[in-house]
Design a protein that fits this description.
The structure holds two protein chains of two kinds.
Chain A lengths: L2 E3 L4 E5 L4 E3 L2 E3 L4 E8 L6 E6 L5 E3 L5 E5 L4 E6 L8 E9 L7 E2 L3 E6 L1
Parallel strand pairs in A: 2-12
Antiparallel strand pairs in A: 1-4, 3-9, 5-6, 5-10, 7-8, 8-9, 10-11, 10-12
Chain B lengths: L4 E3 L2 E4 L5 E6 L6 E7 L6 E7 L2 E5 L6 E5 L5 E5 L8 E8 L9 E2 L3 E5 L1
Parallel strand pairs in B: 2-11
Antiparallel strand pairs in B: 1-3, 3-8, 4-5, 4-9, 5-6, 7-8, 9-10, 9-11
The chains are: A mainly beta, B mainly beta.
């Protein structure tokens, strides 16, 4: 069965420290991958996407993610976290034969401490 | 350039009633997808509309129905509301010509069923 897993429900990080959020997927077809961020009471904002090509992708707000096909992973990273990065982060996966239907992970809540 | 807009922002309904939620896609987009996000969970795909037809559907009962108008805007209708239908309903738009791979989300409609 197709699945998207975000192993960490909750992560606490100090401001200025680095952040890595994990995402693993299980899909039969070639996936395309996204990371979205959601602030409290808000909709989803696209941080970055991977369709093909260079496996290290850059996004907005200083985020980057690396696609590793052998590990079925698409982890999100940021070298130095700002207090405004506190939010919930969702990994999402789609395929070329699912016609734009995205499957989301359960999300990782990020708390930033001073 | 207006993004995806949704109305109303919040809605309170009684069990058994019917509700209609509305979505206007991002300018230039022709495809609308609807997602349900229960508290503490990732969004779940409900269905997708293109050319005024339902093109894909997730695992939701027939109580959930939709419509797309010639101007690409869309409605989500839910009949016979259950307490479990309480959630944030997100609309996302995309452009078929770009393969639907990038979806832009609206701020959502918070539905509470009492």
């Amino acid at each position: 069965a197709q699945s998207v897993t975000q192993p960490d429900i909750h992560i606490t990080v100090s401001e200025g420290a680095s952040l890595e959020l994990r995402c693993n997927y299980s899909y039969g077809a070639t996936p395309y991958l996204f990371w979205y961020v959601q602030s409290p009471g808000q909709g989803l904002q696209l941080l970055l996407k991977y369709f093909s090509g260079d496996t290290l992708v850059q996004g907005i707000k200083g985020f980057e993610a690396e696609f590793k096909r052998s590990q079925s992973s698409f982890n999100l990273r940021k070298p130095s976290v700002h207090w405004s990065d506190a939010a919930e982060y969702f990994c999402a996966v789609g395929t070329t034969d699912s016609w734009g239907k995205l499957q989301f992970g359960a999300g990782t809540q990020v708390v930033v401490t001073p | 350039d207006a993004g995806v807009t949704q109305s109303p922002t919040h809605l309170i309904k009684t069990r058994g009633q019917q509700v209609t939620l509305r979505c206007s896609p991002k300018s230039g987009h022709d495809t609308v997808s609807w997602y349900q996000q229960a508290l503490g969970q990732g969004p779940q795909f409900i269905f997708q509309y293109y050319e005024e037809e339902e093109r894909q559907r997730g695992n939701f009962p027939d109580r959930f129905s939709g419509h797309q108008f010639p101007n690409y805007s869309s409605e989500l209708n839910v009949n016979a509301l259950l307490l479990g239908d309480s959630a944030l309903y997100l609309c996302a738009s995309s452009l078929l010509g770009q393969g639907n791979y990038e979806q832009y989300f609206g701020p959502g409609t918070r539905l509470t069923v009492t």
